[in-house]
Amino acid sequence: MASTGSKNLTAIMAANSAYAETFNKGDLPSPPAKRFAVLTCMDARMDPAKFAGLSQGDAHVIRNAGGRASDDAIRSLIISHKFLGTTDWFVIQHTGCGMATVTDQQIAELLRDDLETAEHNGECWLNPQRESSDNHKPGSDLAESICWHTIGDLHQSVLQDVELIANHPLVPSHITVTGLIYDVQTGLLSRVSA
Amino acid sequence: MASTGSKNLTAIMAANSAYAETFNKGDLPSPPAKRFAVLTCMDARMDPAKFAGLSQGDAHVIRNAGGRASDDAIRSLIISHKFLGTTDWFVIQHTGCGMATVTDQQIAELLRDDLETAEHNGECWLNPQRESSDNHKPGSDLAESICWHTIGDLHQSVLQDVELIANHPLVPSHITVTGLIYDVQTGLLSRVSA
């Protein structure tokens, strides 16, 4: 029996083969046609091309857990402007984000004890129940040294990240940075203002 | 006249309004249905949902400049497994990536002198030509302290990032990590093996 891993690879390669058969975007230029970039969450329910109306070639799309202004997201935005000319950036976080259900400290504790997928009992996250003989690989104190970018208040998180990006010393002051919240239940974007 | 910034915002909100009118994904669960995650580049020409056949709800999508295994991408992957149960991860970098046209040292030098968009003269990147009276905001030495994750050899970059992720102390050993290269001229994915 194929593992989940190889099943997913097989499905991806089959979908890709069909995609390539009618592919006609081979001459798109590298710089985004609409000169903007989107920073949003990795959440599986969100498709930025669909909810923001992006065609291939239009815009850079940066995604991570939470859609947060991590150092790496800011690295990507600086590259986006410095080498590919975007001048207009959108930070889009969302309702129902898993990053708002846990704190950095809780993540560190859960990972220190067990690396396997936690379960949510309606109130909090718990590590999976195991027999003591299970061969699990507990995490190290490394988890405590990582900034997990959890979200306390969604509105504040968007505003804080917009400010962090706009005030970064390697970001020119003429770049526009706009904060938005995506509602996973309605598909609607709304603008976040201070 | 509207700035590029507000024009893009207006276009995004109009597209989003149309999207929300027929939105029917409000009850999708948060954990990815296909239990996998994709790490790929922010490149505007690439739409992972299309080239990998993803439907909304299927998979996490993490994107940054280069599709590199940065600390933040690994943070997102660990969250993806620990809280949302993915067990199968794909690292997808691509041909024609801007990150392969420059070195970390060159990025630092270009940013130190000028934050505005560089031009490529066919051989190398150059800062924009300015009158000495221009009010530009030169970067600081900060750029030299940042890992820009530029790419020397594409094949090696994918392999190196797959290894980095698979061997991370907070990644369980049963997670499968597969390296792929996306060809921007054909739309085809190909698997990268050591």
Verbal overview:
- Helices cover 30% and strands 17% of the residues of chain A.
- Chain A has 194 residues and is α/β, with parallel strands linked by helices.
- A 5-stranded mixed β-sheet of chain A has the order 2-1-3-6-7, covered by helices on one side. In chain A, strands 4-5 form a two-stranded antiparallel sheet.
- Chain A is globular and about 55 Å long.
- The termini of chain A are far apart.
- Chains A and B meet through α1, α2, β2, α3 and α4 of A and α1, α2, β2, α3 and α4 of B.
In short:
By secondary structure, the first copy, chain A, is of the alpha/beta class. Chain A has five helices and seven strands, in the order αβαβαβαββαββ.
- N- and C-termini, Cα separation of chain A: 54 Å
The overall number of domains of chain A is 2
Instruction: Report the portion of residues of chain A in β strands.
Output: 15-25%
Largest beta-sheet details of chain A: 5 strands, mixed
Whole-angstrom Rg of chain A: 20 Å
Please tally the β strands of chain A and state the result.
7
Number of DSSP helical runs of chain A: 5
Q: Average pLDDT value of chain A?
A: 94
- Low-confidence segments of chain A, given as residue ranges, are none
